[in-house]
């Protein structure tokens, strides 16, 4: 009978152990938080081992000490043991399990924790926790078996429970690493999205820069974009004047934008002046209480901003102005992210301002150089009308017939009109109102100059150059740019005849039109690009590395002369480009 009872008790004990292990397995699969999971496991360990309390020690990777990750029944925040200190320290040092059923008689036992807590340790069973990499993770210690002494069966059970704790800890480490990786991936994704947005923004600005015909047009587009991206009600670009003394609003968008464009102030005044002087950005979310704010401007236009963000426009080490946005949308404040974004915009604005200013300077210098080159020719052109004026003046003085004097006077006035037209064209070019410098050109001499430039181009290429001058008289056009047109077309023709051929340049006058033709005996223009050749920039033909930029330049120059360019092409006759320009009056 006693054997049966004993057997049933052992069976119930084993079932309890199995249920506890199953509960631990369920907890491990459903509980993510390691602290909660270990607390559940440690309760099961104490229960299964029929002990009073248990303690889990882990290794501190920095100090190499043991610290209590979970200690049941102890109010001390943390227990720390050096390797070799106490029974748990001994197990950690030797990686060997220990069973002690009379703790105070074991020299390895350290009673300092009992003294602090008032707990009386009687028996101890302690095992090392080793992971699959054969590394010590920590120590599992169970105290005071309730119904007798710890034995080898308890050790076997504790090892099984300890393996579950190791798995839980290793799984948590893996989970934490995956979580960290996921957080890092999310961060990298956010950064990538931000970089993509910035690149897309820079591309958009770059496209505006390449398409803008003027600095005003470009600045307007960038300010509008910045206001949209950052969220602002108004924006402006301020530039230093030539002396660097004053700031003026180069462009301003918003309720009082047009009024601001008429305002200048010292480069040391206002928030913009402070930004320019100190080369430092500013966020002022309460400008009315900001001593740097120039209230006189706000009062003069009756516009009082809620908040201001302003960054310097820098080109290299040189400050050229400031970029300012006013009134963050939806009553929010400007922040550091807005500052970073506006700084991104400011870099593009600075480059664009410098580019346009340099371009204007180059164009101005180019015009002056061309005027200098053409001055002697213009003076020569003046000789003919001046000689005519002189002659008719003398005839008027000698002629008694009133009708003839009036006729001579009309002829005289016509020559003055010719002179005035010449003067107006030169002044228009000098001021930048015109991109071409019209002057009197003798077509025959002009084509002979073109021939001299092309002879080296065809040398050794088995190409016959024919200059067919059917009209060699005077005309009025920008000879330098039209020369560029003919050279570009001739070069295209030369490259379309890699095996040699015939290049013909013809001049003729039909009614009030001056006609130039550039013909080759090449294989012609492919059908697939004929329709868009002169309608779209950067279309090329016949050249492996061609960009089509030459034809784009050609069309632009012809358009500037109010002319037209067309072509005829076939595979058996080659290609002829035909340029038709008005023969300007009063030549």
Describe what this molecule looks like in 3D.
This protein is an alpha+beta fold and 587 residues long. The chain has four domains: 18-178, Beta-Lactamase (2-Layer Sandwich); 211-350, Beta-Lactamase; 363-428, Helix Hairpins; 439-582, Histidine kinase-like ATPase, C-terminal domain (Heat Shock Protein 90). Helices cover 51% and strands 22% of the residues. It is built from 15 helices and 19 strands. It has helices at 2-30, 34-48, 86-94, 112-117, 152-211, 215-231, 257-260, 270-278, 295-301, 336-398, 402-431, 443-458, 479-495, 527-530, 549-560, and strands at residues 51-59, 66-71, 80-81, 98-100, 124-130, 136-145, 232-240, 246-253, 264-266, 282-284, 308-315, 318-328, 439-442, 463-469, 474-477, 501-510, 513-520, 564-570, 574-582. The protein has a six-stranded antiparallel sheet, with helices on both faces. A six-stranded antiparallel sheet has the order 9-8-7-12-11-10, with helices on both faces. Strands 14-16-17-19-18 form a five-stranded mixed sheet. α5 (152-211) runs parallel beside α10, α10 (336-398) packs antiparallel against α11 (402-431) and α13 packs antiparallel against α15. The longest helix has 63 residues, at 336-398. Residues 536-549 have low confidence and may be disordered.
């Amino acid at each position: 009978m006693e054997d049966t009872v004993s057997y049933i008790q052992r069976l119930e004990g084993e079932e309890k152990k199995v249920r506890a292990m199953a509960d631990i397995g369920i907890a491990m699969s459903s509980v993510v938080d390691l602290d909660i999971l270990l607390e559940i496991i440690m309760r099961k360990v104490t229960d299964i081992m029929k002990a009073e309390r248990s303690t889990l020690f882990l290794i501190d990777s920095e100090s190499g000490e043991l610290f209590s990750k979970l200690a049941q029944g102890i109010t001390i925040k943390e227990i720390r043991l050096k390797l070799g200190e106490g029974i748990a320290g001994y197990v950690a040092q030797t990686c060997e399990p220990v069973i002690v059923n009379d703790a105070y008689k074991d020299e390895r036992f350290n009673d300092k924790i009992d003294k602090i807590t008032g707990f009386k340790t009687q028996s101890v069973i302690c095992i090392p926790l080793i992971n699959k990499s054969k590394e010590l993770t920590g120590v599992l210690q169970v105290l005071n078996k309730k119904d007798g002494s710890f034995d080898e069966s308890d050790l076997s059970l504790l090892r099984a429970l300890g393996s579950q704790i190791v798995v839980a800890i290793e799984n948590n480490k893996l989970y934490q690493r995956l979580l960290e990786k996921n957080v890092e991936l999310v961060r990298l994704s956010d950064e990538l999205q931000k970089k993509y947005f910035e690149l897309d923004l820079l591309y958009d600005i770059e496209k505006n820069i390449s398409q803008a015909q003027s600095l005003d047009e470009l600045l307007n587009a960038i300010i509008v974009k910045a206001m949209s991206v950052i969220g602002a009600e108004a924006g402006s670009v301020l530039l230093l004047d030539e002396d660097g003394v004053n700031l003026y609003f180069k462009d301003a968008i918003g309720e009082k934008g047009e009024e601001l464009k008429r305002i200048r102030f010292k480069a040391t005044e206002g928030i913009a002046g402070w930004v320019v002087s100190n080369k430092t950005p500013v966020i002022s979310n309460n400008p009315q209480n900001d001593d740097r704010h120039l209230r006189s401007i706000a009062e003069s236009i009756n516009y009082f901003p809620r908040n201001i963000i302003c960054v310097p426009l820098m080109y290299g080490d040189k400050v050229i102005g400031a970029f300012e946005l006013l009134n963050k949308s939806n009553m929010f404040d400007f922040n550091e992210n807005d500052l970073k974004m506006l700084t991104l915009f400011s870099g593009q604005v600075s480059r664009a301002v410098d580019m346009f200013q340099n371009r204007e300077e180059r164009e101005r210098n180019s015009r002056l150089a061309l005027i200098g080159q053409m001055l002697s020719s213009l003076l020569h052109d003046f000789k003919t009308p001046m000689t005519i004026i002189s002659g008719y003046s003398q005839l008027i003085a000698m002629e008694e017939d009133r009708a003839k004097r009036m006729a001579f006077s009309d002829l005289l006035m016509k020559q003055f009109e010719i002179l005035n037209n010449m003067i107006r064209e030169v002044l228009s070019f000098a001021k930048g109102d015109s991109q071409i410098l019209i002057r009197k050109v003798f077509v025959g001499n002009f084509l002979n100059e073109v021939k001299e430039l092309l002879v080296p181009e065809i040398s050794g290429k088995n190409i016959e150059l024919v200059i067919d001058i059917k009209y060699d008289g005077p005309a009025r056009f920008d000879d330098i740019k039209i020369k560029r047109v003919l050279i570009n077309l001739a070069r295209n023709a030369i490259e379309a005849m890699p095996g040699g051929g015939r290049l013909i340049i013809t001049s003729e006058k039909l009614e009030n039109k001056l006609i130039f033709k550039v013909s080759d005996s090449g294989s012609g223009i492919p059908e697939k690009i004929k329709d868009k050749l002169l309608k779209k920039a950067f279309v090329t033909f016949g050249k492996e590395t061609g960009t089509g930029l030459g034809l784009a330049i050609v069309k632009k120059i012809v358009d500037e002369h109010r002319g037209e360019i067309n072509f005829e092409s076939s595979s058996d006759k080659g290609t002829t480009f035909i340029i038709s320009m008005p023969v300007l009056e009063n030549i």
